[in-house]
Amino acid sequence: MKTRPRRLRNGETLRRMVRETRMDSSSLIYPIFVKEGENILEEIPTMPGQYRYSVDTMGKKLEQLLNAGISSVMFFGIPAYKDEAGSGAYAEDGIIQKALMQAKKDFPELYLITDVCMCEYTSHGHCGVLCGQDVDNDETLKLLAKTALSHAQAGADMVAPSDMMDGRVAAIRNLLDENGYRNTPVMSYAVKYASAFYGPFRDAAGSAPSFGDRKGYQMDYHNSREGVKEALLDIEEGADIIMVKPAMSYLDMVTRIKETVNVPVAAYSVSGEYAMIKAGASLGYIDEEKIICETAASAFRAGCDIYLTYYAEEIAGFMRQGKIG
């Protein structure tokens, strides 16, 4: 036989030399939950090893991430009070705004990204203001843009709308530009499916809807062409990065979006993916380290340029050890 594929699998040095998928810790983003209050360090029951922090306790984690080689974080806020309009999302003294100012002061080398949505801040848990039992798309756009602007003013380097309202990228881009934040990128959760994989996150952030579900604005997981439409619309409106969420069960969409768009593609390995790995490992059913590496590599192999994961710190360590990347 002249052609023997196994020739290029003979030894770790050769395998790494011809590796098709390359990964670097600079492509990792760690999602962090920041809660109103003081001296808070609460482990999240459904996400063992993940915590809710207050502004005064988050510094130790941020320093730990930097030391591990993680230079980017995404903030999710948990306010003390919620109301119908989600006013805590865009308040000058909101939890995200305070976290940004403190992080920018203490860790200027960190790249700070914020999730822009209303669900953690509304008393009903939906991602916008209500009109009866439905989310009012166009009224919500004003508040999302206002929230994104407040984040930029507080020190956010990038904003990431996750609400899935039609037209929200344009609304955010326009208001940022009008206020001098032309260089603040928008990473759009463009291809965000209505998924059961979000369950642990809703526990972590207290963001479960008090009635109904989010299928009226998040995507039907049966659809793929619709995801392409969403991505192209958001790019037309000014999105700089397109995200696919969740990652594990939607790698076909990562590939499809990557082949369609000319901007970077992110994939979010969500709370349910993390919780399943943790649960399986705790029962001895799977090797946690190997599964972490395999699932991360699969996302990059599918085409993502940026990977949001609660395992960011561990993955960076595995990269240094040569176990992945």
Topology:
Layout: H1 12-17, E1 28-35, E2 41-44, E3 47-53, H2 58-68, E4 72-78, H3 95-106, E5 111-116, E6 130-131, E7 134-135, H4 137-154, E8 158-161, H5 168-178, E9 187-192, H6 199-205, H7 225-237, E10 241-245, H8 251-260, E11 265-269, H9 271-282, H10 288-302, E12 306-309, H11 312-320
Helix pairs in contact: 3-4, 4-5, 5-7, 7-8
What key phrases describe this protein's structure?
325 residues; alpha/beta; 10-stranded mixed sheet; two-stranded antiparallel sheet; 11 helices; globular
Secondary-structure element pattern, one letter each: HEEEHEHEEEHEHEHHEHEHHEH
| Overall mean confidence score, pLDDT | 94
User: Roughly how much helix do the residues carry, as a percent range?
Assistant: 25-40%
Class derived from helix and strand content: alpha/beta
How widely separated are the two ends? 31 Å
What's the number of helices?
11
- How would you classify the quaternary structure? single chain
Counting DSSP E segments of at least 2 residues, the number of strands comes to 12
| pLDDT < 50 runs, ≥5 residues | none
Instruction: Determine the strand fraction and express it as a percent band.
Output: 15-25%
Taking all Cα atoms into account, the compactness measure Rg is 20 Å
Shape: globular
Largest sheet: 10 strands, mixed
Could you walk me through the main structural features you see in this protein, from its secondary elements to its overall organization?
The chain is globular. The chain contains eleven helices and twelve strands. With 325 residues, it is α/β, with parallel strands linked by helices. The mean pLDDT is 94. The strands form two sheets. Strands 1, 2, 3, 4, 5, 8, 9, 10, 11 and 12 form a ten-stranded mixed sheet that branches. The two termini are 31 Å apart. Helix 3 (95-106) runs parallel beside helix 4, helix 4 crosses helix 5 and helix 5 (168-178) runs parallel beside helix 7 (225-237). The longest helix is centred in the middle third of the chain and has 18 residues, at 137-154.
